[in-house]
Amino acid sequence: MNKAWNNTVPVWEKPESRRLEFKESFPKGDQVAKTVIAFANGAGGKIIFGIKDDSRKVTGIPETKLFSLEEQISNHIFSKCSPNIIPEIYIQAVQDKTLLVVEIFPGSHKPYFLKTKGKHKGTYIRIGSTNKLASIEIIAELERQRMKISFDAVPATHVKMDEISLETFLKDYKAATGRTLTQKKLKNLGLIYCDHDQLYPTHAAILLCDSIKRKQLFPNAKIECARFKGTDTQVFLDQATIDGPIHAGIEPCIAFVKKNTRLASKIGEVYRKDKWEYPLKAIRETVGNAVIHRDYSILGSDIKLAIFDDMIEITSPGPLPDTISVEELGTGRSEIRNRILAPIFKDLKIIEAWGTGIQKIKQALKYYPEIELVLHEVGHAFQIQFRKKIADRTSTGQVPDKYRTRIVQDADKVKLLKYCREARLLKEMMSFMKLKHRETFMNNYMRPLLEANCISMTIPDKPKSPSQRYIITQDGEALLHK
């Protein structure tokens, strides 16, 4: 079967990601099976044979080998993966070359694993563009997904109700709704589980409590706030840990942002108008979404709010749900990860309606044309950045012609762009340009080319990876052809 790409961006120009992997040919060992398993355990994905994974060069598969390769892949998946995974395999013609596409859909019988290793040593998940062995906690989460049980609904049967205090939550709930929560209502909300007349709190109740049990069982159910000097994390100027009932952590975060950003005043015709450096409504919405949508089953990871000279960055543990991609955010589509907490947060007026968070953030940003919104998955987490735009850069990320003209007029940058028609390591690029001082090279060459979107990283999820390479983009090629 032959299919057409349904995307305006050619697939070979995209970097490998959570849902995409390239193979020039069929590799030895279990590499393909691991990727298939990781895709089935996650959001699904495509393995495209006939494209180099490092340079994204389309090499194609000889027609004489297509059907034998298809059979090899099918047999490999059937013999290596458990439970059975049924791929869709089809042929795609690109640039007078033929590719073989193996499409894997999110599985309904998770966890999937290597037959030879078993569930506990052979379950793989996709983190960025790599396959990783799943931890015990992640395997448990995959099993909950199969049974359609959310982590916050799980009862903590080793904890008695009298070991936790919901005093702060009950007070805040009454203030927001006017309703007093009785024991029966707490059961109906999914905060109490009853077994043989014994009452136990669910994970949701523990996350909302103000007892030591929350810190003992969920030590990372907190928000770490930091103000850094400059644009990296080398020097702290201020920091705070927001470590209380999870619903009560949002306003302290906003207070931290106010403390560490500027309030500017603009004199109007009649009144003076005050405007914060960043849109606080958007920041509040982002923090609220991070708290309600984070994956609390991931131990060792907390929500992070970082303020730099050039941006505010909020990182929440857990990737996007399998059915939603970054591109679909803001379209109204929604999938609730924490099914007990979500309606409670709605009652508390922390969230208003499902699927509207990104829309509200973008609405708030209309009054901040100097700030751009960047959404992406970083490893096994989701990150939102509020970046200050570089001079002359528009909200679409495009750079005006006068900025790019400077690049075209610089013979050295043009030479470097041509060199990057194949993916190159930073040290290779410096050697090619006969430069030894890294900072000078970054300031004079790399940053201008990256900011102008003339080159891109091959591993964008791991900008500091020792395997990081840089390759020319469509915009870079278009610039060379001017």
Brief account:
This protein has 482 residues and is an alpha+beta fold.
Task: Describe the protein in words.
- The protein has 17 helices and 21 strands.
- With 482 residues, it is an alpha+beta fold.
- Strands 12-11-15-16-18-17 form a six-stranded mixed beta sheet, covered by helices on one side. Strands 1-2-5-4 form a four-stranded mixed beta sheet.
- α10 packs antiparallel against α12.
- It starts with 19 loop residues before the first strand and ends with a helix.
How would a crystallographer describe the biggest sheet? 6 strands, mixed
The separation of the N and C termini measures: 38 Å
Shape: globular
Q: What is the number of domains?
A: 4
Helix percent band: 25-40%
Low-confidence stretches: 391-403
Over all CA atoms, what is the radius of gyration?
25 Å
Which CATH architecture of the largest domain? 2-Layer Sandwich
Strand order of the largest sheet: 12-11-15-16-18-17
Instruction: Compute the number of helices.
Output: 17
Category by helix and strand content: alpha+beta
Share in β-strands: 15-25%
Arithmetic mean of pLDDT: 88
CATH topology description of the largest domain: Heat Shock Protein 90
Instruction: Return the CATH class of the largest domain.
Output: Alpha Beta
Number of strands: 21
